Amino acid sequence: MPAVRAQVHQVSKKMGRAQALWQVEDVFGAGQVHGIIGPNGAGKTTLIRVLAGLLHPDEGTVSYDEGGTVLSAADVKRVTGYFPQEPSLYPDLTCREHLEFFRDLYDLPQADFERRAEELLHATGMAPFTDRPAGKLSGGMYKKLGLMCVLLNRPKLLLLDEPTIGVDPVSRQELWDLVYGFAGEQMTVIVSTSYMDEAGRCSQVHVLSSGQMLAAGTPEDVMKHFGVTDFAEIFLNHERK
Amino acid sequence: MNFSWRRARSVALKEYKHILRDPFTLAVTLILPLVFVGMFGFVIDLDYKHMRVYVRDNDQTSVSRRFLQEMASSGYFDLTPVHSPAEADQALEKNGSPALLIIKRGFGRNVRSGNPETPGQIQLLADGTDNVQASIMGTYLQGVIQKANAVFARDNPELSGGAERAPNGGDQIRSRFLFNPELNSRWFIVPALSTIIIGFLAIVLTALTVAKEWENGSMELLLSTPVRPAEIVLGKLVPYFLLTFFDVLVVFVLAVYVFRIPFLGSFLFYMAACWVYITGALALGLVISVVTRQQQAAIQFAFAVGLLPSFIFSGFIFPIENMPAFFQYFTALFPQRWFLLISRTVFLSDAAPMTLATAFGAIGLFAAAMILLAVHKFKTDVEP
Lengths: 241, 384
Hints:
The complex is a heterodimer. Chain A has eight helices and ten strands. Chain A has helices spanning 44-51, 73-79, 95-105, 110-124, 139-151, 169-182, 219-226, 231-240, and strands at 4-15, 18-28, 33-37, 59-66, 69-70, 80-83, 157-161, 188-193, 204-209, 212-217. In chain A, a hairpin with a 2-residue loop joins strand 1 (4-15) and strand 2. Chain A is globular. Chain B has two domains: 5-44 and 184-382, no CATH class; 51-161, abc type-2 transporter like domain (abc type-2 transporter like fold), CATH 3.40.1710. Helix content of chain B is 64%, strand content 6%. The interface between A and B is medium-sized, with 35 and 28 residues.
Protein backbone atom coordinates (compact mmCIF):
# COMPACT_ATOMS: atom_id res chain seq x y z
CA MET A 1 0.00 0.00 0.00
CA PRO A 2 1.35 3.42 -0.85
CA ALA A 3 2.05 6.27 1.56
CA VAL A 4 -0.63 8.74 2.60
CA ARG A 5 -1.06 12.18 1.11
CA ALA A 6 -2.55 14.93 3.28
CA GLN A 7 -4.29 18.03 2.02
CA VAL A 8 -4.99 21.03 4.21
CA HIS A 9 -7.70 23.28 2.86
CA GLN A 10 -8.22 26.80 4.24
CA VAL A 11 -7.66 25.69 7.81
CA SER A 12 -7.99 28.28 10.59
CA LYS A 13 -7.65 27.51 14.25
CA LYS A 14 -7.72 29.69 17.35
CA MET A 15 -5.95 28.54 20.50
CA GLY A 16 -7.30 30.65 23.34
CA ARG A 17 -7.17 34.20 22.05
CA ALA A 18 -4.31 33.59 19.64
CA GLN A 19 -5.00 32.87 15.99
CA ALA A 20 -2.69 29.86 15.75
CA LEU A 21 -3.49 29.07 12.11
CA TRP A 22 -5.03 31.33 9.51
CA GLN A 23 -6.41 30.00 6.23
CA VAL A 24 -3.63 27.50 5.75
CA GLU A 25 -3.69 25.87 2.33
CA ASP A 26 -1.14 23.15 1.70
CA VAL A 27 -0.52 19.71 0.28
CA PHE A 28 1.81 17.13 1.81
CA GLY A 29 2.67 14.79 -1.07
CA ALA A 30 2.94 11.05 -0.48
CA GLY A 31 6.28 9.39 0.20
CA GLN A 32 8.26 12.57 0.87
CA VAL A 33 9.92 14.09 3.93
CA HIS A 34 8.16 17.38 4.64
CA GLY A 35 9.60 19.96 7.00
CA ILE A 36 7.30 22.53 8.56
CA ILE A 37 9.68 25.29 9.55
CA GLY A 38 8.98 28.39 11.51
CA PRO A 39 10.01 30.26 14.64
CA ASN A 40 8.49 29.55 18.04
CA GLY A 41 4.79 30.41 18.09
CA ALA A 42 4.44 30.09 14.32
CA GLY A 43 1.69 27.47 14.69
CA LYS A 44 3.75 24.36 13.88
CA THR A 45 2.49 22.29 16.79
CA THR A 46 -1.11 23.32 16.11
CA LEU A 47 -0.77 22.30 12.46
CA ILE A 48 0.81 18.95 13.35
CA ARG A 49 -1.93 18.30 15.91
CA VAL A 50 -4.60 19.19 13.35
CA LEU A 51 -2.94 16.74 10.92
CA ALA A 52 -2.89 14.09 13.69
CA GLY A 53 -6.62 14.62 14.27
CA LEU A 54 -6.00 15.77 17.84
CA LEU A 55 -7.27 19.30 17.14
CA HIS A 56 -10.25 20.18 15.01
CA PRO A 57 -10.04 23.16 12.65
CA ASP A 58 -12.40 26.05 13.39
CA GLU A 59 -12.69 26.47 9.64
CA GLY A 60 -11.45 24.48 6.68
CA THR A 61 -10.82 20.78 6.25
CA VAL A 62 -8.02 18.24 6.22
CA SER A 63 -8.31 15.25 3.92
CA TYR A 64 -6.13 12.19 3.49
CA ASP A 65 -5.83 9.75 0.66
CA GLU A 66 -3.90 6.58 0.07
CA GLY A 67 -3.15 6.08 -3.62
CA GLY A 68 -6.25 8.06 -4.57
CA THR A 69 -8.56 6.38 -2.00
CA VAL A 70 -9.95 8.87 0.50
CA LEU A 71 -9.44 7.73 4.10
CA SER A 72 -12.01 7.90 6.91
CA ALA A 73 -11.09 9.36 10.32
CA ALA A 74 -10.79 5.84 11.80
CA ASP A 75 -8.54 4.76 8.91
CA VAL A 76 -6.36 7.81 9.40
CA LYS A 77 -5.81 6.92 13.05
CA ARG A 78 -4.87 3.40 12.07
CA VAL A 79 -2.22 4.47 9.56
CA THR A 80 -0.86 7.57 11.30
CA GLY A 81 2.03 7.68 13.72
CA TYR A 82 2.51 10.77 15.84
CA PHE A 83 5.19 11.65 18.34
CA PRO A 84 4.59 14.88 20.27
CA GLN A 85 7.14 17.51 21.14
CA GLU A 86 6.60 17.31 24.90
CA PRO A 87 7.90 14.31 26.85
CA SER A 88 5.14 11.76 26.53
CA LEU A 89 6.60 8.41 27.45
CA TYR A 90 6.21 6.73 30.84
CA PRO A 91 9.36 7.36 32.91
CA ASP A 92 9.02 4.13 34.89
CA LEU A 93 8.46 1.80 31.94
CA THR A 94 11.51 0.31 30.23
CA CYS A 95 12.16 0.52 26.49
CA ARG A 96 10.96 -3.04 26.01
CA GLU A 97 7.81 -2.41 28.04
CA HIS A 98 7.07 0.63 25.89
CA LEU A 99 7.45 -1.41 22.73
CA GLU A 100 5.23 -4.17 24.10
CA PHE A 101 2.61 -1.63 25.18
CA PHE A 102 2.49 -0.12 21.69
CA ARG A 103 2.46 -3.60 20.14
CA ASP A 104 -0.84 -4.23 21.91
CA LEU A 105 -2.24 -0.77 21.20
CA TYR A 106 -1.58 -1.33 17.49
CA ASP A 107 -2.76 -4.93 17.76
CA LEU A 108 0.37 -6.31 16.07
CA PRO A 109 0.90 -10.06 15.70
CA GLN A 110 3.78 -11.26 17.88
CA ALA A 111 5.89 -12.44 14.92
CA ASP A 112 5.61 -9.05 13.19
CA PHE A 113 6.36 -7.29 16.46
CA GLU A 114 9.52 -9.27 17.10
CA ARG A 115 10.83 -8.70 13.59
CA ARG A 116 10.07 -4.99 13.63
CA ALA A 117 11.33 -4.40 17.17
CA GLU A 118 14.59 -6.12 16.31
CA GLU A 119 14.94 -4.04 13.18
CA LEU A 120 14.19 -0.80 15.04
CA LEU A 121 16.47 -1.59 17.97
CA HIS A 122 19.25 -2.36 15.53
CA ALA A 123 18.69 0.77 13.45
CA THR A 124 18.56 3.05 16.48
CA GLY A 125 21.41 1.38 18.33
CA MET A 126 19.08 1.02 21.33
CA ALA A 127 19.43 -2.77 21.66
CA PRO A 128 21.71 -2.58 24.75
CA PHE A 129 19.22 -0.34 26.57
CA THR A 130 16.00 -2.34 26.33
CA ASP A 131 15.75 -2.76 30.09
CA ARG A 132 16.42 0.88 30.92
CA PRO A 133 13.41 2.95 32.08
CA ALA A 134 12.49 5.83 29.77
CA GLY A 135 13.06 8.32 32.59
CA LYS A 136 16.73 7.34 32.69
CA LEU A 137 17.43 7.76 28.97
CA SER A 138 19.37 10.68 27.50
CA GLY A 139 17.46 13.24 25.40
CA GLY A 140 18.46 11.64 22.11
CA MET A 141 17.70 8.10 23.25
CA TYR A 142 14.33 9.22 24.63
CA LYS A 143 13.36 10.59 21.22
CA LYS A 144 14.59 7.43 19.53
CA LEU A 145 12.41 5.33 21.84
CA GLY A 146 9.40 7.52 21.03
CA LEU A 147 10.15 7.14 17.34
CA MET A 148 10.46 3.38 17.71
CA CYS A 149 7.08 3.18 19.45
CA VAL A 150 5.27 4.96 16.63
CA LEU A 151 7.28 3.24 13.89
CA LEU A 152 6.30 -0.21 15.20
CA ASN A 153 2.97 0.20 13.43
CA ARG A 154 4.70 1.03 10.12
CA PRO A 155 2.61 4.19 9.73
CA LYS A 156 1.90 5.51 6.26
CA LEU A 157 1.93 9.04 7.63
CA LEU A 158 4.49 9.89 10.31
CA LEU A 159 4.05 13.16 12.19
CA LEU A 160 6.94 14.34 14.35
CA ASP A 161 6.64 17.56 16.31
CA GLU A 162 10.10 19.07 16.79
CA PRO A 163 11.79 15.70 17.36
CA THR A 164 15.26 17.22 17.50
CA ILE A 165 14.59 19.96 20.05
CA GLY A 166 16.89 19.74 23.07
CA VAL A 167 18.97 17.01 21.43
CA ASP A 168 22.75 17.19 20.87
CA PRO A 169 24.06 17.55 17.26
CA VAL A 170 25.20 13.93 16.97
CA SER A 171 21.81 12.59 18.10
CA ARG A 172 20.07 15.07 15.78
CA GLN A 173 22.00 13.64 12.86
CA GLU A 174 21.09 10.11 13.95
CA LEU A 175 17.41 11.00 14.23
CA TRP A 176 17.37 12.48 10.73
CA ASP A 177 19.16 9.42 9.38
CA LEU A 178 16.51 7.27 11.01
CA VAL A 179 13.68 9.32 9.53
CA TYR A 180 15.22 9.05 6.07
CA GLY A 181 15.86 5.37 6.59
CA PHE A 182 12.15 4.72 7.08
CA ALA A 183 10.68 7.36 4.75
CA GLY A 184 10.03 6.36 1.20
CA GLU A 185 7.26 5.02 -0.94
CA GLN A 186 5.59 3.43 2.07
CA MET A 187 5.68 6.41 4.39
CA THR A 188 5.09 10.15 4.24
CA VAL A 189 6.97 12.05 6.96
CA ILE A 190 5.97 15.48 8.26
CA VAL A 191 8.46 16.97 10.70
CA SER A 192 8.20 20.37 12.35
CA THR A 193 11.36 22.17 13.36
CA SER A 194 12.49 25.56 14.53
CA TYR A 195 16.10 24.78 13.61
CA MET A 196 16.51 26.54 10.30
CA ASP A 197 19.54 24.46 9.36
CA GLU A 198 17.33 21.37 9.34
CA ALA A 199 15.12 22.73 6.57
CA GLY A 200 17.71 21.78 3.97
CA ARG A 201 17.40 18.12 5.00
CA CYS A 202 13.75 17.94 3.89
CA SER A 203 12.61 17.14 0.40
CA GLN A 204 9.75 19.64 0.79
CA VAL A 205 9.77 22.72 3.01
CA HIS A 206 6.62 24.44 4.30
CA VAL A 207 7.29 27.89 5.72
CA LEU A 208 4.92 28.83 8.53
CA SER A 209 4.96 32.19 10.27
CA SER A 210 2.35 33.70 12.62
CA GLY A 211 -0.12 30.99 11.65
CA GLN A 212 0.15 31.63 7.92
CA MET A 213 1.74 29.39 5.32
CA LEU A 214 4.15 31.68 3.48
CA ALA A 215 5.48 29.21 0.92
CA ALA A 216 6.05 25.54 0.20
CA GLY A 217 8.31 23.63 -2.16
CA THR A 218 11.78 22.17 -2.37
CA PRO A 219 14.32 23.96 -0.16
CA GLU A 220 15.97 25.49 -3.22
CA ASP A 221 12.67 26.71 -4.69
CA VAL A 222 11.62 28.23 -1.38
CA MET A 223 14.92 30.10 -0.94
CA LYS A 224 14.73 31.30 -4.54
CA HIS A 225 11.13 32.43 -3.96
CA PHE A 226 12.22 34.63 -1.05
CA GLY A 227 15.52 35.62 -2.62
CA VAL A 228 17.57 34.46 0.36
CA THR A 229 20.47 32.10 0.93
CA ASP A 230 19.48 31.11 4.46
CA PHE A 231 16.06 30.09 5.83
CA ALA A 232 16.51 32.24 8.93
CA GLU A 233 16.49 35.32 6.67
CA ILE A 234 12.93 34.52 5.58
CA PHE A 235 11.64 34.97 9.12
CA LEU A 236 13.88 37.93 9.89
CA ASN A 237 12.61 39.71 6.76
CA HIS A 238 9.02 38.70 7.59
CA GLU A 239 9.39 40.06 11.13
CA ARG A 240 10.77 43.37 9.82
CA LYS A 241 7.74 43.78 7.57
CA MET B 1 -12.81 0.07 15.23
CA ASN B 2 -14.39 -2.22 17.79
CA PHE B 3 -13.64 -2.58 21.48
CA SER B 4 -10.37 -4.46 21.84
CA TRP B 5 -9.75 -6.59 24.93
CA ARG B 6 -6.10 -6.69 24.02
CA ARG B 7 -5.77 -2.91 24.15
CA ALA B 8 -7.74 -2.73 27.41
CA ARG B 9 -5.52 -5.44 28.88
CA SER B 10 -2.37 -3.60 27.80
CA VAL B 11 -3.58 -0.40 29.52
CA ALA B 12 -4.35 -2.45 32.67
CA LEU B 13 -0.93 -4.08 32.58
CA LYS B 14 0.79 -0.73 32.16
CA GLU B 15 -1.19 0.71 35.08
CA TYR B 16 -0.33 -2.31 37.21
CA LYS B 17 3.37 -1.68 36.56
CA HIS B 18 2.96 2.00 37.51
CA ILE B 19 1.38 0.97 40.82
CA LEU B 20 4.09 -1.54 41.63
CA ARG B 21 6.81 0.99 40.89
CA ASP B 22 5.26 3.90 42.73
CA PRO B 23 6.04 3.27 46.39
CA PHE B 24 3.89 6.21 47.48
CA THR B 25 0.66 4.93 45.93
CA LEU B 26 1.37 1.46 47.15
CA ALA B 27 2.14 2.66 50.68
CA VAL B 28 -0.96 4.86 50.85
CA THR B 29 -3.15 2.06 49.60
CA LEU B 30 -1.81 -0.51 52.00
CA ILE B 31 -1.35 1.68 55.06
CA LEU B 32 -4.46 3.86 54.87
CA PRO B 33 -6.90 1.06 55.74
CA LEU B 34 -4.77 0.15 58.75
CA VAL B 35 -4.67 3.79 59.86
CA PHE B 36 -8.45 4.08 59.48
CA VAL B 37 -9.14 0.86 61.30
CA GLY B 38 -6.68 1.77 64.04
CA MET B 39 -8.09 5.27 64.39
CA PHE B 40 -11.77 4.37 64.35
CA GLY B 41 -11.51 0.91 65.83
CA PHE B 42 -9.29 1.64 68.80
CA VAL B 43 -9.05 5.37 69.39
CA ILE B 44 -12.57 6.58 68.81
CA ASP B 45 -14.90 5.00 71.31
CA LEU B 46 -18.43 6.29 71.52
CA ASP B 47 -19.14 4.15 74.55
CA TYR B 48 -18.79 6.46 77.54
CA LYS B 49 -17.33 4.69 80.53
CA HIS B 50 -15.79 5.92 83.79
CA MET B 51 -17.42 9.35 83.59
CA ARG B 52 -16.25 11.39 86.56
CA VAL B 53 -19.11 12.40 88.84
CA TYR B 54 -18.83 14.30 92.10
CA VAL B 55 -21.29 13.11 94.70
CA ARG B 56 -22.79 15.09 97.57
CA ASP B 57 -24.71 12.66 99.75
CA ASN B 58 -26.97 14.79 101.98
CA ASP B 59 -28.86 11.75 103.13
CA GLN B 60 -26.04 9.57 104.49
CA THR B 61 -28.23 6.52 105.05
CA SER B 62 -27.64 2.88 104.21
CA VAL B 63 -30.10 3.31 101.29
CA SER B 64 -28.20 6.21 99.77
CA ARG B 65 -24.89 4.40 100.23
CA ARG B 66 -26.34 1.28 98.60
CA PHE B 67 -27.56 3.39 95.69
CA LEU B 68 -24.08 4.88 95.19
CA GLN B 69 -22.58 1.42 95.35
CA GLU B 70 -24.91 0.32 92.52
CA MET B 71 -23.95 3.39 90.55
CA ALA B 72 -20.21 2.79 90.96
CA SER B 73 -20.46 -0.90 90.13
CA SER B 74 -22.13 -0.12 86.80
CA GLY B 75 -18.68 0.87 85.47
CA TYR B 76 -20.03 3.98 83.77
CA PHE B 77 -19.29 6.35 86.64
CA ASP B 78 -16.23 7.15 88.72
CA LEU B 79 -17.60 8.70 91.91
CA THR B 80 -15.76 11.28 93.99
CA PRO B 81 -17.48 12.30 97.24
CA VAL B 82 -17.68 15.98 98.23
CA HIS B 83 -18.48 16.86 101.84
CA SER B 84 -19.85 20.41 101.87
CA PRO B 85 -21.87 22.74 99.65
CA ALA B 86 -18.72 24.86 99.15
CA GLU B 87 -16.78 21.83 97.99
CA ALA B 88 -19.66 20.96 95.65
CA ASP B 89 -19.55 24.45 94.12
CA GLN B 90 -15.81 24.16 93.67
CA ALA B 91 -16.19 20.79 91.99
CA LEU B 92 -18.69 22.20 89.53
CA GLU B 93 -16.45 25.11 88.63
CA LYS B 94 -13.51 22.84 87.98
CA ASN B 95 -12.74 22.03 84.38
CA GLY B 96 -13.11 18.44 83.42
CA SER B 97 -15.71 17.56 86.03
CA PRO B 98 -18.71 16.73 83.93
CA ALA B 99 -21.26 16.35 86.68
CA LEU B 100 -22.37 16.70 90.27
CA LEU B 101 -24.88 14.31 91.77
CA ILE B 102 -26.77 15.43 94.85
CA ILE B 103 -28.74 12.96 96.94
CA LYS B 104 -31.41 14.94 98.77
CA ARG B 105 -32.00 14.63 102.47
CA GLY B 106 -34.77 12.11 103.20
CA PHE B 107 -33.86 9.95 100.18
CA GLY B 108 -33.55 6.79 102.24
CA ARG B 109 -36.72 7.45 104.20
CA ASN B 110 -38.76 8.13 101.06
CA VAL B 111 -37.45 5.08 99.24
CA ARG B 112 -38.22 2.89 102.23
CA SER B 113 -41.77 4.26 102.44
CA GLY B 114 -42.37 3.06 98.87
CA ASN B 115 -44.95 5.80 98.39
CA PRO B 116 -45.01 6.94 94.73
CA GLU B 117 -46.17 10.41 95.94
CA THR B 118 -42.91 10.99 97.80
CA PRO B 119 -40.13 9.29 95.88
CA GLY B 120 -36.46 9.46 96.80
CA GLN B 121 -34.91 12.52 95.16
CA ILE B 122 -31.63 12.78 93.34
CA GLN B 123 -30.40 15.78 91.41
CA LEU B 124 -27.90 15.49 88.56
CA LEU B 125 -26.08 18.66 87.43
CA ALA B 126 -24.33 17.83 84.19
CA ASP B 127 -21.99 19.94 82.06
CA GLY B 128 -24.03 20.68 78.93
CA THR B 129 -21.06 21.88 76.88
CA ASP B 130 -20.59 18.24 75.94
CA ASN B 131 -24.21 17.58 75.10
CA VAL B 132 -23.62 14.02 73.98
CA GLN B 133 -21.94 13.01 77.21
CA ALA B 134 -24.52 14.90 79.33
CA SER B 135 -27.45 13.15 77.68
CA ILE B 136 -25.76 9.76 77.76
CA MET B 137 -25.06 10.32 81.46
CA GLY B 138 -28.75 11.02 82.05
CA THR B 139 -29.75 7.86 80.22
CA TYR B 140 -27.23 5.71 82.07
CA LEU B 141 -28.38 7.16 85.39
CA GLN B 142 -31.96 6.19 84.57
CA GLY B 143 -30.73 2.68 84.01
CA VAL B 144 -28.88 2.65 87.31
CA ILE B 145 -32.00 3.91 89.13
CA GLN B 146 -34.11 1.21 87.54
CA LYS B 147 -31.62 -1.44 88.52
CA ALA B 148 -31.26 -0.04 92.05
CA ASN B 149 -35.04 -0.14 92.44
CA ALA B 150 -35.14 -3.75 91.43
CA VAL B 151 -32.28 -4.66 93.76
CA PHE B 152 -33.93 -2.76 96.63
CA ALA B 153 -37.23 -4.47 96.02
CA ARG B 154 -35.55 -7.88 95.94
CA ASP B 155 -33.57 -7.26 99.11
CA ASN B 156 -36.49 -5.75 101.05
CA PRO B 157 -39.59 -7.66 100.03
CA GLU B 158 -41.24 -6.88 103.37
CA LEU B 159 -41.02 -3.13 102.67
CA SER B 160 -41.87 -2.89 99.02
CA GLY B 161 -44.20 -5.81 98.68
CA GLY B 162 -42.24 -7.21 95.77
CA ALA B 163 -41.05 -5.72 92.53
CA GLU B 164 -44.59 -4.67 91.65
CA ARG B 165 -44.54 -1.94 94.24
CA ALA B 166 -41.23 -0.46 93.25
CA PRO B 167 -41.61 2.88 91.48
CA ASN B 168 -42.54 2.07 87.89
CA GLY B 169 -42.36 -1.54 88.96
CA GLY B 170 -45.85 -2.31 87.67
CA ASP B 171 -45.30 -1.48 84.05
CA GLN B 172 -41.67 -1.74 83.25
CA ILE B 173 -40.37 -1.50 79.72
CA ARG B 174 -37.93 -4.27 79.17
CA SER B 175 -35.63 -3.31 76.30
CA ARG B 176 -33.65 -5.87 74.43
CA PHE B 177 -31.38 -4.61 71.68
CA LEU B 178 -31.25 -6.89 68.69
CA PHE B 179 -28.12 -7.48 66.57
CA ASN B 180 -25.90 -5.44 68.90
CA PRO B 181 -27.15 -6.37 72.38
CA GLU B 182 -24.54 -4.33 74.24
CA LEU B 183 -24.87 -1.39 71.87
CA ASN B 184 -21.14 -1.67 71.34
CA SER B 185 -20.13 1.31 69.21
CA ARG B 186 -17.21 -0.64 67.73
CA TRP B 187 -19.70 -3.04 66.18
CA PHE B 188 -21.38 -0.03 64.68
CA ILE B 189 -18.23 1.69 63.39
CA VAL B 190 -15.88 -1.01 62.15
CA PRO B 191 -18.27 -2.62 59.61
CA ALA B 192 -18.79 0.87 58.21
CA LEU B 193 -15.10 1.50 57.68
CA SER B 194 -14.98 -0.18 54.28
CA THR B 195 -17.47 2.42 53.10
CA ILE B 196 -15.16 5.24 54.09
CA ILE B 197 -11.98 3.60 52.85
CA ILE B 198 -13.40 2.71 49.44
CA GLY B 199 -15.36 5.95 49.18
CA PHE B 200 -12.20 7.92 49.70
CA LEU B 201 -9.26 5.83 48.55
CA ALA B 202 -10.78 4.44 45.35
CA ILE B 203 -11.91 7.86 44.19
CA VAL B 204 -8.53 9.47 44.90
CA LEU B 205 -6.58 6.66 43.23
CA THR B 206 -8.32 6.88 39.89
CA ALA B 207 -8.82 10.65 40.10
CA LEU B 208 -5.07 10.95 39.73
CA THR B 209 -4.44 8.46 36.94
CA VAL B 210 -5.91 10.13 33.87
CA ALA B 211 -4.98 13.62 35.11
CA LYS B 212 -1.41 12.42 35.52
CA GLU B 213 -1.35 11.22 31.92
CA TRP B 214 -2.58 14.60 30.75
CA GLU B 215 0.02 16.41 32.83
CA ASN B 216 3.00 14.31 31.78
CA GLY B 217 2.02 14.42 28.12
CA SER B 218 1.50 10.70 27.63
CA MET B 219 -2.21 11.17 26.96
CA GLU B 220 -1.42 13.02 23.72
CA LEU B 221 0.62 10.07 22.50
CA LEU B 222 -2.00 7.60 23.70
CA LEU B 223 -4.81 9.44 21.90
CA SER B 224 -2.90 9.31 18.63
CA THR B 225 -3.06 5.51 18.73
CA PRO B 226 -6.18 3.46 17.92
CA VAL B 227 -6.99 3.01 21.65
CA ARG B 228 -10.59 3.90 22.54
CA PRO B 229 -11.94 5.63 25.67
CA ALA B 230 -13.81 2.51 26.83
CA GLU B 231 -10.56 0.52 26.64
CA ILE B 232 -8.65 3.12 28.65
CA VAL B 233 -11.45 3.32 31.25
CA LEU B 234 -11.58 -0.47 31.67
CA GLY B 235 -7.80 -0.76 31.67
CA LYS B 236 -7.54 1.85 34.39
CA LEU B 237 -10.33 0.35 36.51
CA VAL B 238 -9.07 -3.21 36.78
CA PRO B 239 -5.74 -2.79 38.64
CA TYR B 240 -7.18 -0.25 41.08
CA PHE B 241 -10.17 -2.50 41.59
CA LEU B 242 -7.90 -5.32 42.72
CA LEU B 243 -5.94 -2.98 44.96
CA THR B 244 -9.05 -1.57 46.63
CA PHE B 245 -10.60 -5.00 46.98
CA PHE B 246 -7.48 -6.15 48.78
CA ASP B 247 -8.04 -3.28 51.25
CA VAL B 248 -11.63 -4.39 51.77
CA LEU B 249 -10.45 -7.90 52.59
CA VAL B 250 -7.91 -6.49 55.06
CA VAL B 251 -10.63 -4.48 56.82
CA PHE B 252 -12.92 -7.52 56.80
CA VAL B 253 -10.30 -9.78 58.37
CA LEU B 254 -9.45 -7.17 61.03
CA ALA B 255 -13.13 -6.63 61.80
CA VAL B 256 -13.89 -10.31 62.23
CA TYR B 257 -10.68 -11.63 63.76
CA VAL B 258 -9.26 -8.64 65.66
CA PHE B 259 -12.36 -6.76 66.72
CA ARG B 260 -14.41 -9.95 66.94
CA ILE B 261 -17.36 -8.38 65.21
CA PRO B 262 -19.86 -11.02 64.19
CA PHE B 263 -20.50 -11.51 60.48
CA LEU B 264 -23.95 -13.02 60.22
CA GLY B 265 -25.10 -12.15 56.69
CA SER B 266 -24.31 -13.64 53.30
CA PHE B 267 -20.60 -13.36 52.57
CA LEU B 268 -21.16 -13.71 48.84
CA PHE B 269 -23.74 -10.95 48.85
CA TYR B 270 -21.38 -8.70 50.80
CA MET B 271 -18.55 -9.39 48.35
CA ALA B 272 -20.81 -8.68 45.38
CA ALA B 273 -21.83 -5.39 46.99
CA CYS B 274 -18.15 -4.55 47.58
CA TRP B 275 -17.32 -5.20 43.93
CA VAL B 276 -20.13 -3.01 42.67
CA TYR B 277 -19.43 -0.22 45.15
CA ILE B 278 -15.67 -0.26 44.41
CA THR B 279 -16.36 -0.11 40.68
CA GLY B 280 -18.67 2.88 41.13
CA ALA B 281 -16.18 4.74 43.33
CA LEU B 282 -13.29 4.07 40.94
CA ALA B 283 -15.38 5.17 37.97
CA LEU B 284 -16.34 8.36 39.81
CA GLY B 285 -12.62 9.03 40.30
CA LEU B 286 -12.10 8.53 36.58
CA VAL B 287 -14.90 10.97 35.76
CA ILE B 288 -13.19 13.56 37.96
CA SER B 289 -9.85 12.86 36.33
CA VAL B 290 -11.24 12.96 32.81
CA VAL B 291 -13.02 16.24 33.42
CA THR B 292 -10.34 18.13 35.39
CA ARG B 293 -7.25 16.84 33.55
CA GLN B 294 -5.11 18.28 36.36
CA GLN B 295 -3.93 16.33 39.36
CA GLN B 296 -4.30 19.15 41.86
CA ALA B 297 -7.85 19.98 40.84
CA ALA B 298 -8.66 16.27 40.68
CA ILE B 299 -7.48 15.63 44.21
CA GLN B 300 -9.52 18.57 45.53
CA PHE B 301 -12.63 17.28 43.77
CA ALA B 302 -11.93 13.78 45.04
CA PHE B 303 -11.79 15.06 48.60
CA ALA B 304 -15.03 16.98 48.13
CA VAL B 305 -17.02 14.14 46.59
CA GLY B 306 -15.23 11.27 48.29
CA LEU B 307 -14.28 12.04 51.83
CA LEU B 308 -16.98 14.52 52.85
CA PRO B 309 -20.04 12.55 51.73
CA SER B 310 -18.46 9.38 53.13
CA PHE B 311 -18.48 10.90 56.59
CA ILE B 312 -21.43 13.27 56.46
CA PHE B 313 -24.00 11.86 54.05
CA SER B 314 -23.46 8.16 54.56
CA GLY B 315 -24.88 7.88 58.05
CA PHE B 316 -21.43 6.97 59.36
CA ILE B 317 -21.50 9.71 61.99
CA PHE B 318 -24.84 11.49 61.67
CA PRO B 319 -27.95 9.31 61.47
CA ILE B 320 -29.78 9.98 58.21
CA GLU B 321 -33.15 9.72 59.97
CA ASN B 322 -32.28 12.81 62.02
CA MET B 323 -31.50 14.95 58.98
CA PRO B 324 -33.98 17.47 57.53
CA ALA B 325 -36.19 15.89 54.86
CA PHE B 326 -34.26 17.49 51.99
CA PHE B 327 -30.95 16.05 53.13
CA GLN B 328 -32.48 12.64 53.68
CA TYR B 329 -33.33 12.57 49.97
CA PHE B 330 -30.02 14.22 49.07
CA THR B 331 -28.01 11.45 50.74
CA ALA B 332 -29.69 8.96 48.41
CA LEU B 333 -27.47 10.32 45.62
CA PHE B 334 -24.36 9.06 47.35
CA PRO B 335 -23.49 5.38 47.04
CA GLN B 336 -21.73 5.62 50.41
CA ARG B 337 -25.13 5.77 52.13
CA TRP B 338 -26.35 2.59 50.45
CA PHE B 339 -23.19 0.60 50.85
CA LEU B 340 -22.97 1.57 54.51
CA LEU B 341 -26.47 0.22 55.01
CA ILE B 342 -25.53 -3.05 53.31
CA SER B 343 -22.28 -3.33 55.22
CA ARG B 344 -23.77 -2.78 58.68
CA THR B 345 -26.73 -5.02 57.96
CA VAL B 346 -24.81 -8.01 56.64
CA PHE B 347 -22.26 -7.83 59.42
CA LEU B 348 -24.68 -7.73 62.33
CA SER B 349 -27.78 -9.50 61.03
CA ASP B 350 -28.60 -12.40 58.78
CA ALA B 351 -31.14 -10.37 56.84
CA ALA B 352 -32.16 -11.88 53.51
CA PRO B 353 -30.34 -10.19 50.61
CA MET B 354 -33.75 -9.26 49.14
CA THR B 355 -34.27 -6.78 52.00
CA LEU B 356 -31.24 -4.89 50.69
CA ALA B 357 -32.34 -4.96 47.05
CA THR B 358 -32.91 -1.20 46.92
CA ALA B 359 -29.48 -0.44 48.35
CA PHE B 360 -27.82 -2.92 46.00
CA GLY B 361 -29.73 -1.49 43.04
CA ALA B 362 -28.66 2.02 44.00
CA ILE B 363 -24.94 1.23 44.08
CA GLY B 364 -25.30 -0.74 40.84
CA LEU B 365 -27.03 2.15 39.14
CA PHE B 366 -24.37 4.55 40.38
CA ALA B 367 -21.53 2.34 39.10
CA ALA B 368 -23.14 1.95 35.67
CA ALA B 369 -23.82 5.68 35.41
CA MET B 370 -20.24 6.58 36.38
CA ILE B 371 -18.68 4.15 33.89
CA LEU B 372 -20.85 5.50 31.09
CA LEU B 373 -20.07 9.07 32.12
CA ALA B 374 -16.31 8.40 32.25
CA VAL B 375 -16.37 6.90 28.75
CA HIS B 376 -18.64 9.64 27.43
CA LYS B 377 -16.59 12.48 28.91
CA PHE B 378 -13.29 10.98 27.83
CA LYS B 379 -11.80 13.33 25.29
CA THR B 380 -10.23 11.83 22.22
CA ASP B 381 -8.48 15.04 21.25
CA VAL B 382 -6.30 17.65 22.92
CA GLU B 383 -8.72 20.55 22.52
CA PRO B 384 -8.58 22.76 25.63
